[in-house]
Amino acid sequence: MNTTVSLTELAATELASAVASNNGRSALTICGGRDAQLRQTLMALRAGEGLSEHSSPGEATLQVLVGHITLRSADNSWEGKLGDLLPIPTEVHAVDALEDSVILLTVVKAQQL
């Protein structure tokens, strides 16, 4: 990435899209992609929406840019508010938006040997 990205501006745009959408979600990959080892995706979730249980393809963190979320696994849950950085567990997990929220998901895919 050779240009500066305003996460604040992108968060506002994606949140407006999420609130207006039928599924209450919006996402934009801002760095990397499916074939890159590092991927950063900005996700906006309308209050009451979330990401159902899933696995992560590698090490990952979630940073809360707007709102309030819960990150949960089978045995634990963690709340995240503005500015919080949460390591994502390696086990199956899910995310719930407790209020209109925007998160920055950073994933480093495990190298395949």
Tell me what you see in this structure.
By secondary structure, this protein is mainly β. It has 1 helix and 9 strands; from the N terminus they run αβββββββββ. The strands form 2 sheets. It has a 5-stranded antiparallel β-sheet. A 4-stranded antiparallel β-sheet has the order 3-8-5-6, with no helix packed on it. A hairpin with a 6-residue loop joins β1 and β2. The chain starts with 6 loop residues before the first helix and ends with a strand. The mean pLDDT is 92.
Q: What is the mean predicted local confidence, pLDDT?
A: 92
Strand content: over 45%
CATH architecture: Sandwich
The CATH class is Mainly Beta
The major beta sheet can be summarized as: 5 strands, antiparallel
| CATH H-level superfamily | Jelly Rolls
**Number of discrete domains:** 1
Fill in the keyword field for this structure.
113 residues, mainly beta, Jelly Rolls, five-stranded antiparallel sheet, four-stranded antiparallel sheet, 1 helix, RmlC-like_jellyroll, RmlC_Cupin_sf, Cupin domain-containing protein
